[in-house]
Each structure stands twice: as structure tokens, then as C-alpha cells.
């Protein structure tokens, strides 16, 4: 049985699916990932500091203006739209119980129509004042220049994204663990599984059916039922017609 047929067969037989995704799910929407050859972290920083360092809490605190220059420049992709991977998952959720656990902050799964989305690292769509807690939409960051300040109290508006040195939300982790423990199919895609604790969550899947769809091989210490080295959008486009109503 070829890989695409095997994948569609596993999906058709599943009842509770968890899709665990990373930046590779959004590359076909034009958003670079982090660790691929042409990923963000492979680029020479325009700001004299490696991008991975700039995405840290301490850099945000000590170089807030430069952080926002970098953030608007490289972390907000206003023109990005969902690709066939996002759309496939949204369509699949109309037929099956699908929970998406994503490390991405771009909001493209929700834009595609997915409802059960657990954003481990937050979202660029949500922002809040660090002083009074007032919420702000992404437009407040895009429309401002330099450091964005709260119109209510003058505090700094911080994106609701998890920076290095910041903890993940306990509520979010609990939701992810519950979904993983209830699942009978885990699809891991578009991620290098490089970042803890996100990458450790897959250890809480106790089923037999693990599928990995990734351009590069990834380190995973659990038995994999099916591995496809390919582009997730292309793979899902070919599977779509084989999914039973
Ligand atoms: N289809 C399938 N796989 C892809 C595709 C694609 N179209 N494009 C890229 N990939 C794969 C790459 O081969 C790589 O293994 O996706 C993976 C992306 O890995 P990373 O760039 O490390 O992204 P991710 O795993 O999401 O990083 C996790 O690191 O810096 C932090 O907070 C950041 O959430 C991010 C976290």
C-alpha cells in the first residue's frame, strides 16, 4: 500500500485525531520556519543579535524598541493565508474529532476554520498591556511605531507569544495532555521537535498510531507507524479525496 493510501486508511479508521504541528506547517503559506536551511535562525541578523536571542524575554525587557522592530519585520506575516494543510485539517474536523496542537503563533489554523486549536506558544493575534492587562488586537501592533503603549494606562503592549525564558500556560499544557491521552491517532508534522517542553508533550500519547510528515527526519523515541518525508500541504492535498465522509 503506498504512503498516501496508508495515511488515508489510518485517518479513516481513527476516531480522535491529534495533529501536532510546527513552523513547517506554515512554510507553504510563505512563512519561513526557524531551523531549516533557509529558516529564520539560519539568516544573518539585521540587528546584530541572533534572531533566536531576540525572541527571548530578557531581550524583550532590555531592548524593547529593537524587539518590536524585529517583531514587525519578521514575525508578523500579514499577507499569509492558510495553505492546503490548514484547510485539510479544518475540513477533516467536519467529519472527525480533530484537535490541533500547534507551536505556531500565526493563527492560520483558525483562519482556515479549525476550532479545536491549542496554541502552545500563544498567538500574534492576541496582545495585552503589561500594566493594566487591557487586550489589544494585532492591528494595534501593526499601526503603531516603536514600542506600542496602552491607550488606557501608558503601559507597554506585549504580544501574547511565549518567548524563550517564559513558561507555557498550565491550562494550555493540560488541554494538550487531555487531547493526547484521548487520541487514537497522532500526526506530527512540520516540526523539528527541538524545543522543550512542547516537544515532550508527544510522550503523553499512548496509542499505537503515530504518523510523522516532515521534510527532514526528526528525533523521536517512540515507534512510528508511518513516516512521510515530504511537504505537508502536498501530502494532505493528495489524501483529501481518500477521506471517507
Ligand atoms: N512540510 C513538511 N515539513 C516541513 C515543511 C513542509 N512544507 N517545511 C518545513 N518543514 C520541516 C523542516 O524540515 C523542519 O524539520 O518543519 C520543521 C520545522 O522545524 P523548526 O523550524 O525547528 O520549527 P518548529 O519545530 O516549529 O520550532 C519550534 O522553536 O524557536 C522556537 O518558538 C519557536 O515554535 C517554535 C519552536
Mean pLDDT comes to 97
Largest sheet: 6 strands, parallel
State the helicity in percent bands.
25-40%
Strand order of the largest sheet: 3-2-1-7-8-9
Radius of gyration: 18 Å
Query: How many alpha or pi helices?
Result: 9
The ligands found in this model are:
adenosine-5-diphosphoribose
Structural class call reads alpha/beta
Low-confidence stretches: none
Mind telling me which CATH architecture of the largest domain this is? 3-Layer(aba) Sandwich
Supply the number of structural domains: 2
CATH fold node name of the largest domain: Rossmann fold
Shape type: elongated
What is the string of SSEs from the N terminus onward? HEHHHHEHEEEHEHEEEH
Strands, count:
9
Please report which band the strand proportion falls in: under 5%, 5-15%, 15-25%, 25-35%, 35-45% or over 45%. Answer: 15-25%
N- and C-termini, Cα separation: 21 Å
Going by CATH, what is the homologous superfamily of the largest domain? TPP-binding domain
Which CATH class of the largest domain? Alpha Beta
Describe it.
With 245 residues, the protein is an alpha/beta fold. The chain has two domains: 3-30 and 82-121 and 167-240, Rossmann fold; 40-75, no CATH class. It has helices at 3-13, 51-54, 57-62, 64-75, 84-92, 108-112, 138-143, 170-182, 232-240; strands spanning 16-21, 97-102, 117-119, 122-129, 135-137, 157-161, 185-189, 210-213, 226-228. The strands form two sheets. A six-stranded parallel β-sheet has the order 3-2-1-7-8-9, sandwiched between helices. A three-stranded antiparallel β-sheet has the order 5-4-6. A hairpin with a 5-residue loop joins strand 4 and strand 5. It is elongated and about 60 Å long. The model has no long low-confidence stretch (mean pLDDT 97). It binds adenosine-5-diphosphoribose (APR).
